[in-house]
Amino acid sequence: MQGPNPPTSRPGPGWREYGAVMDEQSFDARRMHPALAGAVVLVTGAGRGMGAIYARRAVEGGARAVSLWDVDDDAARRVAGSLARVGVEIEVRRVDLGDRDDVVGAAREVVERFGRVDVLVNNAGVVRGAPFWEHDPVADIEATMRVNTLAPMWLTRAVLPSMMADTTRPKRILNIASAAGTLANPNMSVYAASKWALIGWSESLRLELSRLGHGHVAVTTFCPSYVSTGMFAGARGPLLTPIMTPETAAAAAWSGMLRGAPLVLRPWTVKLAMALRGVLPVRWWDAVAGKVFKVYSSMDEWTGRRDPALTRD
Ligand SMILES: NC(=O)c1ccc[n+]([C@@H]2O[C@H](COP(=O)([O-])OP(=O)(O)OC[C@H]3O[C@@H](n4cnc5c(N)ncnc54)[C@H](O)[C@@H]3O)[C@@H](O)[C@H]2O)c1
């Protein structure tokens, strides 16, 4: 089902990944990726940060409808306003991803309204940067696990059967995890756990779909290191791991999703860290990660910003 990426002729979203050069006239008709052309796209956490960029890329890439979900619906409405374009239906839904009924109900309404979901981006996330014993059991631990881990499962479970049944076009699921799901890091234990679980689920789902004959639904897991959206304000990028701009990070995730890449790790040091952690004895790796790469102190100055989903003062 997944045709080759079409070539493009001028700079635009994802143009580098498509590679080849074409003449100007054929560009507009040919630039759309088959997974995006006329697609119904659902993005969670679309009110700001990388979620807003995924929404924009969906509109620019030829989607027919884009559903922007956020608990901060004012922010999502501002994003929607900036994306308004003839021929594209853009809707905003106030959904609290920590609430399963809210998630399942909204998913049903999206399918009722647009008939299907073709591209699902599980992007929303929250973080509490503190030693584990300072996490509130409900407002921090439970809220983080609900938003970061359970909500992608609830939402995917709600829309996946219809995605599997519709073999007329390629389908995509992009799960935004984190480098924090690939190695341990002090001051983000619950966040790391939430992303670690997300990766295990996302990768297993990918394998199930391809092994059981549903290869038109491709699952991509994205694991970025720090990105300058404000979520990790105050954190320091480890050695050789500069803090990425949201545009750079989202571009890597988006092109990986269109290609149907299983796993996208950015920057390259995330992959290096996984390899070293796999081969070195634990305490050697601790010394390398802590003293050489300075991963373990990267959250020492974290301030973040106040998240609506984490209700503590
Ligand atoms: N920023 C980073 O450094 C970084 C690094 C690795 C992974 N990530 C992951 O990338 C994703 C996007 O991160 P970002 O930096 O763009 O985040 P962000 O904080 O800029 O935006 C997150 C969005 O999710 C929404 N949201 C939060 N809780 C919600 C809830 N309960 N229901 C509905 N919406 C909710 C927020 O309102 C916000 O609009 C997250 O999953 C995050 O964990 C971020």
What can you tell me about this protein's structure?
- It is a single chain.
- The chain has 313 residues and is α/β, with parallel strands linked by helices.
- It has one domain (36-292): Rossmann fold (3-Layer(aba) Sandwich), CATH 3.40.50.720.
- Helix content is 44%, strand content 12%.
- The protein contains 10 helices and 7 strands.
- It has helices at 15-18, 24-30, 49-60, 73-83, 100-114, 137-165, 189-211, 246-259, 268-279, 282-292; strands spanning 40-44, 65-70, 89-94, 119-122, 171-176, 217-224, 263-266.
- The radius of gyration is 19 Å and the shape is globular.
- Mean pLDDT is 90; it is low at 1-29.
- The chain binds nicotinamide-adenine-dinucleotide.
- Nicotinamide-adenine-dinucleotide (NAD) binds next to helix 3.
Tags for this model:
single chain; 313 residues; alpha/beta; Rossmann fold; 44% helix; binds nicotinamide-adenine-dinucleotide
List low-pLDDT spans.
Answer: 1-29
CATH homologous superfamily caption: NAD(P)-binding Rossmann-like Domain
Radius of gyration: 19 Å
Give the fraction of residues assigned to helices.
40-55%
The SSE string, one letter per element, is: HHEHEHEHEHEHEHEHH
According to CATH, what is the topology?
A: Rossmann fold
CATH class: Alpha Beta
The averaged pLDDT comes out at 90
For the record, give the distance between the C-alpha atoms at the N and C termini, rounded to a whole number.
Answer: 49 Å
Coarse morphology: globular
Work out the count of structural domains.
1
Q: Structural class, please?
A: alpha/beta
Main sheet: which strands, in order across?
Answer: 3-2-1-4-5-6-7
User: Biggest sheet, in brief?
Assistant: 7 strands, parallel
